[in-house]
Amino acid sequence: MSDPTIRTITVNALTRVEGEGSLRVRVVGERVEIAEFSIYEPPRFFEKLVQGRAIRELPDIVARICGICPVAYQMSACGALEQALGIVTTPGIEALRRVLYCGEWIQSHALHIHLLHAPDFLGHESGLSLAKVAPELVERGLRLKALGNRIMEVVGGRAVHPINVTVGGFYKAPDSAALRGLLPELEWGLAAAEEVVRETSRFEFPDFTREYECVCLKAEGEYPMNHGRVVSTGGLDIDVADYERHFQERQVSWSTALQSVMLPEEKPYLCGPMARLNLCFEQLPPRARAAAESSGLELPITNSFRSIVARGIEIVAACEEAIRLVQAAAAAPLAPCRVAFEPRDGVGCHATEAPRGILYHRYEIGADGLVKGAVIVPPTSQNQGQVEADLRDMLPGILDRGDEEVRHRCEHLIRNYDPCISCATHFLRLEIERA
After folding, report:
1. Domain spanning 46-383 has what CATH number?
2. How far lies 114's CA from each of 20, 308, 322, 354, 369, in Å?
3. So what's the pLDDT on residue 375?
């Protein structure tokens, strides 16, 4: 006979995610025994795939890991390879790389907020059903996403998997007139993003708070994106070269994705927009900081459901930064657009801030110009353990509710993280086993 004190909730498949995942929850009495966020997509073995490939091939190969944040993979790879090769890029190259990254943040955050996350707060099953009653909201999201894609086209050569990025810089300097052409839409985007912050800050947020160990990059004089030291709310402050001494990926039986833990306690941690705001608020550009302050968002942010507001603030920051950098780049065309190099033996590592959090790459290369080995740690593997910890903390407070409401709240919590399993989430089916 089945035990009436045991409740099992199984979500077999998630849709609208980058890849395939599921959720299994087992409750015994009032105790959450299992909360497993499972990623069951077959492993893609990119770290093995790049071995034996030419250095110049790497930015194009690793971009294919993600269709939403290919720039993050390209920037982390280029930074690591350039360190191994002893390449020092120019300020102009670094400024344009930041513009390119701004484009990715804008399109990724706009997609998540308007089509994947806002429906949870507004009582809709999807962005499509939301569009029927709030077309202006969805249209704004699509226009912001198009703006981000256009920036990636102008600087990176293509909106998805940019082709203008190379080790040492860019294959071709972007056209000055095309850069200037971005400014009117960026000005609109800045004002639209400020409205996003105002609107999302008025959403009704579930009462769920917890203390997070936040981890992100922190850079002098700018909000973290392409450079910085690794810092945490617990006092960690290390060079990226020491990353693997403090963080380690582990295999778990229920997921094909590795999970990162923070050493020596082997505890989960949080990266992404909330972590960046909690640790780097003072580095926000002026209008983004003003938008955050007027939203009423209190720091540190301890409720992951408020991450939607944090993403809106980062769209403001990305538009504001892009305007400043584009104006300067259009006035002074990039020359040279690429730093030459000769292959040599070496090891290099680099981390950047993808929309969802820290993305770490390390490469070993040979004098023959080929890659000997690679380590790639994406943000979702770093957040996966924290997602499960959040589920375990939240579930006891909602188990007295109906199965459908429990299912939706669990989905909503996972969507707070915008998991990039291969883009953010709805579940297809829910199976509940009851006595």
Report:
1. 1.10.645.10
2. 22, 10, 21, 19, 44
3. 94
Distances (CA, A) of 394 to 292, 406, 429: 26, 10, 21
Residue 144 to residues 45, 96, 181: CA-CA distances in angstroms? 33, 20, 16
Residue 135 amino acid letter: P
For CA atoms 255, 261, 267, 268, give the dihedral sign: negative
Q: What's residue 14's pLDDT? A: 47
Cβ(339)–Cβ(53) below 8 Å: no
- Residue 3 has a pLDDT of 56
Tokens found for residue 267: 């505890």
Distance from CA of residue 319 to its chain's centroid? 17
The residues with which 371 forms a beta bridge, in sequence order, are 365
Q: Which two tokens stand for residue 5?
A: 């004190």
CA–CA gap between residue 108 and residue 128 (Å, rounded): 18
HSE (CB half, 13 Å, CA atoms) of 322?
Answer: 34
Tell me the C-alpha distance between 223 and 280, whole Å: 7
pLDDT at 48 over 70: yes
Q: Is the peptide bond before 336 cis (omega within 30 degrees of 0)?
A: yes
Of 45-59, 98-112, 376-390, 392-406, least confident by mean pLDDT is 392-406
Q: Whole-angstrom Cα distance, residue 79 to residue 227?
A: 9
d(CA 273, CA 301): 10
Cβ neighbours for 76, distance < 8 A, ≥ 6 positions apart = 62, 350, 351, 352, 359, 360, 361, 376
State the distance between the two ends of the chain, measured CA to CA, in whole angstroms.
8
Could you state, in order of their start, the residue ranges of all structural domains in the chain? 6-43+388-433, 46-383
Q: Which residue has the higher pLDDT, 420 or 133?
A: 133
- For residue 379, whether the previous peptide bond is cis, meaning omega lies within 30 degrees of 0, is no
> pLDDT above 70 covers what percent of the chain?
90
For residues 197 and 156, what is the distance between their CA atoms, to the nearest angstrom?
28
Q: Find, among 340, 365, 325, 314, the residue nearest to 77 by Cα.
A: 365
> Given the DSSP bridges, would you call strands 229-232 and 371-377 parallel, antiparallel or unpaired?
unpaired
Bridge partners (DSSP) listed for residue 35: 25
Query: Residues 329, 97: contact at Cβ < 8 Å?
Result: no
Whether omega before 264 lies within 30 degrees of 0, making that bond cis, reads yes
Burial of 102 (0-12, 13-18, 19+ CB in 10 A): buried
Is the pLDDT at 411 greater than 80, yes or no? yes
- Give the residue from 376, 378, 375, 377 showing the smallest Cα distance to 356: 378
